[in-house]
Amino acid sequence: MNLEKLKRYSPLVLRLAIVLIFLWFSITQLTNPEGWTRMIPGYASVTASPLTLVYINAIFELILALLLLFGFKTRIVSALLTLHLLHIVTILGYGAVGARDFALAVATLSIFFYGPDEFTIDHLMKKRNKKI
Hints:
This protein has about 130 residues and is an all-alpha fold. It has helices at about 10-30, 50-70, 75-90, 95-115, 120-130.
C-alpha cells in the first residue's frame, strides 16, 4: 500500500475526529445537562443559571461542530473552538481533564493553521469562484 496517497486524507481525518468529539460533548450536554452544571464557574452563574449556560454551550458546540463537519468557514470555526477549549482549560485547571482539553485545543488549532482541506465546502466554493 502506498501511504503517500493517504496523506491527502490526514486533514479530513483530524477534522472529523474533532467534529465527533464536539458532537459528543454537545449531545451529552443536551441529554444530561445536570451532569455538566458542576463545570460552570461561579462567576458565569451571575448571567444565567448553570443549567441555562450548559444548554447555551451545548448549542454553541453543536452549531460549530456541524459547520466544521461540512467545512464551512473552517478557519473561523476552528479558531472559535480553539479559543473555547483554551478558556475551558483555564477554568478547569491543568489536571487530567485540562490536559485532554489542551490537546483537543492544539488539534483544533492545527485545523485553523491548515485551513480548508479539499473535502470542505470552503474548498469547493473557492474552486468554483476561480472558474467564474
